[in-house]
Amino acid sequence: MTAEAEGPERRFEYEDLRGAVAPSAADGDPGAGFEETLRRLLDPGSARRSLHWGRSYLYEARWRLAAEAGEAAVVVKQFRHDDLRARLRRRRRGTRARLSFRAARRLRRLGISTPEPLLYAESKTIDGPAWYVCRLVPDALELRYVLRALNAGVAPEQFPGIHGPTLLRRVGALAAELHRHGVWFRDLTAGNVLLSEPTTDAELFLVDLNRARFRRRLSTSQRLRDLSRMPVLRQADRAEYLAGYRPGGLSRLQRIWFEACHQGFRFKLGSKQGARRGLRRLSDLLLPRRRAHPHVPEAERGATTTERTVWDPLTDQPHQQATRGQRLGVRLRDAGHHARPLLRSAVPLALSVAEARRARRVLDRAPAPVRFGGLGVAVGPGSAPVSSLAGAIDDLRVDTVLLRFHLWQGVDPGLVELARTLRCRERPVDLVFQLSQDRSLVRDGGLWRLRVEEAAAALAPFGRRFLIGQAPNRSKWGVWRPADYWNLLAAGAEAVRTECPDACVLAPAVIDFEPHATAALIHSGSAERRFDVLASQLYVDRRGAPENRQLGFDLAGKLAVLNSLARRAPDCASGRSWITEFNWPLAEGPHAPAGRDVAVDEDAQASYLVRYALEALGSGLAERVYWWQLAAAGYGLLDPRGDGLRQRPAYRALRQLQRELAGAEVLRIRMPSGLRGYRALQEGRDTRVVWASGGRGGSYRPQGEVRAVRDRDGRKLDRVPAALSGAPVYLECEAGGSAGGT
Fold this sequence. Notes:
Layout: E1 10-13, E2 17-21, H1 32-42, E3 49-53, E4 57-64, E5 71-79, H2 84-93, H3 96-109, E6 117-123, E7 130-135, E8 141-142, H4 143-152, H5 155-158, H6 164-180, E9 183-184, E10 193-195, E11 204-206, E12 213-214, H7 220-227, H8 235-245, H9 252-286, E13 309-312, E14 317-320, H10 324-333, H11 335-365, E15 370-371, E16 375-379, H12 386-396, E17 400-406, H13 413-423, E18 430-436, H14 439-443, H15 445-459, E19 465-468, H16 482-499, E20 504-511, H17 515-521, E21 531-537, H18 555-568, E22 572-582, H19 602-617, E23 624-628, E24 638-639, E25 646-647, H20 649-661, E26 665-668, E27 675-682, E28 685-692, E29 706-710, E30 716-717, E31 729-733
Helix pairs in contact: 6-8, 7-9, 11-17, 11-18, 12-13, 15-16, 19-20
């Protein structure tokens, strides 16, 4: 190790923060300029990418170090102390950030590799967050992925540059080195060891140091408990691991002791998951406030339950600070207001559900060809520069775009400029303007109407489609009773039609699959609440893949329910049904609009986008669908963090889908169980899009010659895959072949 850890740490203290910085991270004592850059660093909005999202949040950022010309890539680890156990531990030993910082400096003095510690910071309140910052190890590989491959017996294929037995001996030797120096690591797991590169001789770095204890000498129990946490499952691999720790291995008694500790630790891990989930639900019901990410502000002191909503800028949505129990109390108090619309719509809902089941069976038996179109993207305020968004929309070749305006903030000039740009180009884009509310606009009907009038006056030259309101079945958007939304709809529709007499009004934008909420809101029977197109924000991410079932319906079944409701509802003039929002959230920490349980990786998000669009538009059950949104950190097609806009796999997948199928006649293919597919005919081209709905499936061989094979993102493949996966594949076939499977 270098001498960076030799100098004393330099303390800093501000109104609400204190901490210390390593000599290598700042010249002299931290001054006023240091505070500004520090606060920017500790803001998760400065993250360039998320590294881990669990009990703690890790992200990559940039930091200018002393004696370095440019900014260095660093890792910021945010610790939270919002439960009783964490607060008690903080009182007893200090924050985990401070413990990590000092343990890292001490390990480096002992010659044990850990990423260079740069600083720690902690809030002065006992329940506030703390942060540990260290230098990023570029291209680091977590040992956990290598061990998973070893345990599955596929390590040589996945990591050809790594010799498993040698690496295991090196990991065992690292544990021995720790114990020789009296370091009881207490969390020596595969996720806390990094390889600098995927090779056998890579440097090994230890991370997550806050639990480490430094002793003069460790007991046998402490040593074996440390060793037993490493998930080396195969007996031969464990022998190599223990041989690295002690040449010749452990004694017979120690080996029995080790195995008991190892199995006990694995049982403990398995049993904690369910218990944590149950406790989290109970705490949401009983605690005085819901726990949020530290950057989300508190509700105003003394605010009533219906007013405890704050804006979360990282997810671009409101956050409800009221607990489940508090919200339940409001619902019970307002039970009569909800019961009447539900009872009025009960029979139409039952008839629509029955009709949807029949339509879903017909779709399987005798699918009809549908022209593929209506796939669009949505854009919110301030997501990216107008020129970049317009260029991306042109590159995607989408013909329709939804622009969401947050009217409590006024009419966003950037979105108005984007509307003007999209309408004045050679290939105009059809625009939908969503006019969203917050609680203040729900309370003040006069202000709501004024804001709608301002928006309609600014936007009418560029389009005539207006979606009134946002997610009226979610209290965080300010609507607690059906009448709250009906008032918004009546005033908003009148204001829009006054400015634009031929306006097409969309409503009510119920979020998720809650057909009872949709039915209740569209069966008011009042002429002033009539609208033209049923808009739904049909998120199905909580069920995983779009084909998964909810309340007995897969995606096509849900769309059939909404389609039937639109045609039966007295409030919906045209009987048409659009999906104005869908997406899958990514595991991006506080940027993700939903929890870890429903977050997916970027590859799954891309596959789900294509499959959702095909099932919705290829079945003819939805006239349009819009991805929310084009550029966003936690779920967008483009990642706006860092330098420029990074194209995610979902962006490339949507672009390829448009280029393959836009304007084609699409017909659902009858496929073997577990497989799904659509056939697209256009200008002499016959293209099949096929995938395995369960993630892994059998083979598909269309009749006739396959002229070209392209993957989901447009890359050419040498041949048809032997087994289909969850990622759709495009097969360009000889025109005129049968649409049947196998």
